[in-house]
Design goal:
A hairpin with a 4-residue loop joins β7 and β8. By secondary structure, this protein is an alpha/beta fold. α2 crosses α5 and α3 crosses α4. It is built from 7 helices and 11 strands. One of its GO terms (molecular function) is electron transfer activity. Belongs to the ETF beta-subunit/FixA family. This is Probable electron transfer flavoprotein subunit beta. Heterodimer of an alpha and a beta subunit.
Length: 266
């Protein structure tokens, strides 16, 4: 018989329903935000996070006890959770908010995740989430969660090596100069960069199996958190249209055009 591992890894993967990356973004007529009456899908960076969690299971097999996906969003966000389940997550948590509610801000999301983690009887050893969502591009949730929990963090991860026996991980981070290697103790917050993994496509059998996997529904009041925004967006407008350039036949003509535009040499 194979011996029972001395330590089992429980992974939590937060995912977000966002406007599909292929959709051309438009400002809504009220200029209060973008038009959301378009196709939505899982935030691409979160897809990478789910893939990394599933790859860890494939690598460690019985040593990964559970992969749990979680989302905070309206009823339609259930589809995003089903995608995560079809990719390989075992179960999911849906913190449901009304359809008309604004998307929760990063601090509210981090507080919600903290409350969920503290409710888990089996504990959470590793939280893997996208480094940012492509709708607001804030990139703050992972860092805020780390601060609230007092856990290690490794952001912009392009490689993750976990040593379950030692309860630590070595993470390669994307930085301006190349890669930075950090060694972190578990429990750990990891935010994923594009080069970490290529997400898999969910197969039809797995999509059907995902419909039978458990999804726990919670509300903000169940968790004792307030998702009311503390920031106010005054107005959203599209950037001004770019004016086309023109060709010149000679350097003299270029200099003349620059002078006409009021541009002079220093």
């Amino acid at each position: 018989m194979r011996p029972t591992p001395a330590r089992l890894l429980n992974i939590l993967v937060p995912v977000k329903r966002a406007v599909d990356y292929a959709v051309k973004i438009r400002v809504n007529p009220q200029q209060t935000g973008i038009d959301t009456n378009v196709k939505h899908s899982m935030n691409p960076f979160d897809e990478i996070a789910v893939e990394e969690a599933v790859r860890l299971r494939e690598r460690f097999k019985d040593e990964v006890k559970s992969i749990k996906a979680i989302t905070i969003g309206p009823p339609k966000s259930l589809d995003t959770l089903r995608t995560a389940l079809a990719m390989g997550a075992d179960s999911a948590i849906h913190v449901e908010i009304p359809e008309s509610s604004p998307s929760p801000e990063p601090l509210a999301v981090a507080k919600t995740l903290k409350a969920v983690i503290e409710r888990q009887k089996e504990g959470v050893d590793l939280v893997i989430l996208g480094k940012q969502s492509i709708d607001d591009d804030l990139g703050l949730t992972g860092q805020m969660l780390s601060g609230l929990m007092g856990w290690s963090q490794a952001t912009f991860a392009s490689k993750v090596d976990v040593d379950i026996a030692k309860k630590e991980a070595v993470v390669t981070r994307e930085i301006d100069g190349g890669g930075e290697e950090v060694r972190c103790k578990l429990p750990l917050i990891v935010t994923t960069d594009l080069r970490l993994k290529e997400p898999r496509y969910a197969s039809l059998p797995n999509i059907m199996k995902a419909k039978k996997k458990p999804v726990e529904k919670l509300s903000a009041s169940d968790l004792g958190v307030d998702l009311t925004p503390i920031l106010e967006t005054l107005k959203v407008t599209e950037p001004p249209q770019r004016v086309g350039g023109g060709k010149v036949e000679s350097v003299d003509e270029l200099v003349a055009k620059l002078k006409e535009a009021g541009i002079t040499a220093v």
